[in-house]
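Write out the 3D structure for:
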Amino acid sequence: MDNKPDNILEVRDLVVKYGDRTVLDGVNVDIKRGEVFVILGGSGCGKSTLLRNLVGLMRPYSGSITYNGRDFTKMGDEERVETRKKMGMCFQGSALFNSMTIGDNVALPLREHTSLEPSTIDIMTKIKLELVGLGGFENFMPAELSGGMMKRAGLARAMAMDPDIIFYDEPSAGLDPIVGAGLDMLIRKMQQTFNLTSVVVTHEMESVKLIADRIVMLDKGRVIGLGTLEEIQQIDHPFIEQFFARRPDAEGEDTAAYLRSLTD
């Protein structure tokens, strides 16, 4: 019987500071097992900082992050490393090693963190590449792939250790709308096929519409909305209204007026 909690991650009263500057101020979030959870907000609101804390790349000033019922923030270094083996990370720029083939990039976590036979690792690598539509590309170098293919290769590497959860940092950044939509559907495919939890930081509203089960909306390091896209859009908050209306602030309005004056 599966006794895992319904929430794979629980964030409580999370405070993160850079020096004297508070970047996250009392964040409370639950992430449900098997959902696609999107972190949304303006530039500098704390999205990437929250992501780095969720994946354990930094420790908070205060508060807790509970992963599968255990407090991630209180673990020792060795235990945190073991816990992170059940997490996958897709970086904005794919972060592939340019001197290694795509197959070697995907196989690297298995070679570093398991005692599997090389033949087994080769089979698992090919399976992961097949999952993301890159079957037969294991001997290609990253420079021989398009941007979208590199993103898929990064996802295959994130899947190498069969994680419970994958974190995505701006997965559609730099991709054209068609390729970006294909990546969005791949994120959904992973969720539906493996009941995989996905946490996605993105600015792409079209992606949000396609993939988000729930959204947390951040502004100035605080949660100002949590729920489905429809629920977020109904919240009476000036920043939420401004964000979804794509309405610039006063400085942006002054710039827009100036640009318009050049064409008058």
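The longest strand covers residues 7-18.
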